[in-house]
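debug: dumping io for the single-chain case to check the tokenizer round-trip. Nothing else runs in this session.
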Amino acid sequence: MRFLHVGILLTFTMLLIGCSGGGSSSPAPTPIVDGGGGSGGGDGSGGGDGSGDGDTASACNVAAQIDFVEAVLEDWYLWYNEMADVDKSDYDSAQAYLDARLAPLIEAQRDLFSRMTTITEDETSISSGAYIGFGFRSFTDSTRLFITDVFESGPAYAAGVRRGMELLAVDTGGGFETLDQLSARGATNEEIFGANEIGVTRKFQFRYQGEDLNIEVAKEELSPPALAGEPLLIEREGLTPVGYLNLRQFIDAALDPAEGYFSLADASQLFDGEGVTDLIVDLRYNGGGLLSVADTMMDLLAGVTAEGEPSFKIQVNDQHPDYNEDQGNWGIFDRLPETASPIRIAFITSGNTASASELVINGLAPHVETVLIGADTYGKQVGQGRWDMHEQIEDLERADCDIALRLTAFELVNGENQGGYHQVGLDGTGRFTLCAAEDDITRAFGDPRETLVATALDWFGSGACPSVASGLAPQTMAQLRSKSTPWLPAEFIPERVDGNLR
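debug: decoded output
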């Protein structure tokens, strides 16, 4: 097989979601980042399992996939000089080989994001956030499960499931069993919530505001709206209102939502029209997404204040110094027609706030007064480029090889070259003020009485963190928190640190 040599950036699809002993391969070209747009022909049905005839089959078999991974790793992996040396002939899959090479980084939890995937799966996941499920996010402690978010486009929302409900029991087909009963008999996550297939149905018993409710929900394929609810204005006596925006994910729908939902531009246009100078941006459950969406969000929030200045810089490994110095790989603040001009932004954050969310906060900090409300962020300063195998091998078509590699290939700094938050979070850099407060799941997003929102409002009023977080409810996350039970694991959804989506 002959790897194609490309000396310029291709369409580098960037996701902000994370010496070989067996021979050598030619250097790999630059990756694909952001957009997930069509690369190559076909519908991706070919996979990469070695099916097909003659040369096509051998060009996408396991050995070829391992050669492809090796070439990309050696050339573009961010920490290429820290990989393990292994004999690639010892491995029977590209994923196993990748895991072996990255073992030192995985064990240190520096890279939990690099993985093999398919182009089809990746394009669907990063652009739309689509998955099959009921349409809610949950939090579990050792014995209890609470609903923390319900997607307005999903079946659970339509059936009446709401944030703050406690799940008491599930009917998997033989009558209701409490969570304690399910735990005692060792029920698996799939037994409780069903397979990830359209039409799988469960009956749930919830407790909400003192009332027990039985709700039946069937799984659907759904794309959660990027914004939770609508952008809000919180009135203040004698002052302009405080704007409130809750962004769930950095996906295409944040820029181009389905009919009836809201975009980031809708929000910033509202805030600009109302003269908003103090803004709450709620990223408490936002684990990241597309760099292009983060770039646009920064334009909408500081495109006037910082017009023409760099918002972020993509930095790859030191084998590509020209790439790092190329201003074409930087984000630049642009003034858009809908751009607002907040003076202060309170970012609601948690340990689930990661990647693109952290990029936005870090990028805006030099230009807008910022504060973190809640808890420190996850600490993911790195991003994943995507390499499509058929693009790297001469005469190989996507229809015959849908294989792709998502590899940690770059880190991000702001326009002033500030970063330093990988694994330690933004508060860990010492550059941010954090007003500690807890998620009050008993109240809706944007409710001025909700602990995190109330703390942000206090900060706007005084310019300092309140000594005691405002209005702490009796059922904050701190009082519920403990290690999740092994029988209710989070399902893996790429680039979402909080994977408790069902």
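debug: round-trip ok. Residues 132-222 form a domain with the Pdz3 Domain fold (CATH 2.30.42.10).
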